[in-house]
């Protein structure tokens, strides 16, 4: 028996046994969520995620520099005026989290919030 064929048979058996993931079974890419920040709100203002589901948050600043921070989820990103920033993360806690703008953007800065619901 040829060594290459033997290796293929062993990998196929390991895949069926759950030891090695099957080559054709690729994981879905992380969910991409685009958020636009402008004085003094986020659009969308509320996002729902599933615990354990990888996501990429993309923050776009429509006017001045803005940030987005969820302290309890260890998420913090900043977008310069007119640009975008992104961060990938996987929520590991269930609940409602309030994100705040982390870059001073004017008189309404303190009221700028985004609600994040993480469900099972």
Brief descriptors of the model:
120 residues, mainly beta, Immunoglobulin-like, four-stranded mixed β-sheet, three-stranded mixed β-sheet, 9 strands, 12% helix, elongated
General description of the model:
The protein is mainly beta and 120 residues long. It has a single domain (27-119), classed as Immunoglobulin-like (Sandwich). The protein has 1 helix and 9 strands. The chain has one helix spanning 3-16; strands at 31-38, 41-43, 46-50, 55-61, 66-70, 75-79, 84-89, 95-100, 113-119. The protein has a 4-stranded mixed sheet with strand order 2-1-4-7, with no helix packed on it. Strands 3-9-8 form a 3-stranded mixed sheet, with no helix packed on it. The chain has a two-stranded antiparallel sheet with strand order 5-6. The longest helix has 14 residues, at 3-16. The model has no long low-confidence stretch (mean pLDDT 88).
Radius of gyration: 21 Å
Question: Main β-sheet: number of strands, strand sense, barrel status?
Answer: 4 strands, mixed
Broad CATH class: Mainly Beta
Termini separation comes to 49 Å
**CATH fold annotation:** Immunoglobulin-like
User: What would you call the quaternary organization?
Assistant: single chain
Q: How many domains make up the 3D coordinates?
A: 1
Order of the strands making up the biggest sheet? 2-1-4-7
Low-pLDDT sequence parts? none
Global geometry: elongated
Beta strand count: 9
- Put simply, the count of helices is 1
- Average pLDDT rating: 88
């Amino acid at each position: 028996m040829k060594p290459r064929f033997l290796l293929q048979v062993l990998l196929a058996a390991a895949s069926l046994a759950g030891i090695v993931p099957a080559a054709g079974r690729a994981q879905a890419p992380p969910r991409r969520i685009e958020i636009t920040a402008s004085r003094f709100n986020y659009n969308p203002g509320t996002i729902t995620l599933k615990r354990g589901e990888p996501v990429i948050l993309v923050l776009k600043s429509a006017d001045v520099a803005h940030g987005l921070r969820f302290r309890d989820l260890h998420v913090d990103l900043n977008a310069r005026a007119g640009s975008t920033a992104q961060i990938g993360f996987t929520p590991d806690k269930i609940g409602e989290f309030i994100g705040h703008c982390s870059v001073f953007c004017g008189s309404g800065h303190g009221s700028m919030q985004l609600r994040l619901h993480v469900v099972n």
